[in-house]
Amino acid sequence: MSAASTSTVAAEEPNPASPHAEQVPAPASAPHAEQFRTRERQELAATLGVWIFLSTELLFFGPLFFGYLYLSTHYAPAVHAASRHTDLLLGTVNTALLLTSSLCIALAAVKAKPGREDSRPTVRLMGIAMLLGVAFLAIKGFEWHKEYTEGLFPSVHFAPKEGGSPAHVHAMQLFFLLYFAMTALHALHLVVGLGLCGLAAWALRRGKARAEHIELVGLYWHFVDAVWIFLYPLLYLAGRAGG
Hints:
Layout: H1 3-12, H2 39-74, H3 76-83, H4 88-111, H5 120-149, H6 166-205, H7 211-237
Region (Disordered): 1-37
Family: Belongs to the cytochrome c oxidase subunit 3 family.
Membrane topology: Multi-pass membrane protein
């Protein structure tokens, strides 16, 4: 065997001097921050931070849910009557859109796993999720306008089709006050989610985002989706549960 071929074989073998050379893990493709000992710890800290952030986000919705609970407990007939004024079809379509977008984000996180060099499927799925999110906001905007023209916006012009005693109408007005506050706050969170999703997709196309970034954006998106899963039955189905 020539000297040249001997040197080539030596270069291909990892480390013949160590019997455990094959068990040594390969170095991470991306470095971790110096305050973390390993990349796994950095990713764990990032995930924990997002969960803590999402927990604080619940504080925004907590008082509104508590207000709804109080109203539905003390003025159940008025809440049911007001709920029947919401547009069940539009609310159901929006629920389907948001659930589908959440599925797209979940698939995008899977596609972004390490070892998948092609980022185009991930970006494409995130783009679909964003389009569905925009469609949700467009339908919600149309729904708000429709309810405003029907006199359901809580103001001096509040005039639901199914009225009743002043106390009954006042309770219905409180329901729509909570309705507009909850759906507007949810829409605001969805707008933030669209911004995060777009930023992550942009960074991924330029090789500046990694799988954990997509997963963290997915956590926020699923949070927005989960909030709507609670809002939908409370606002649209409460007055229709009995047929």
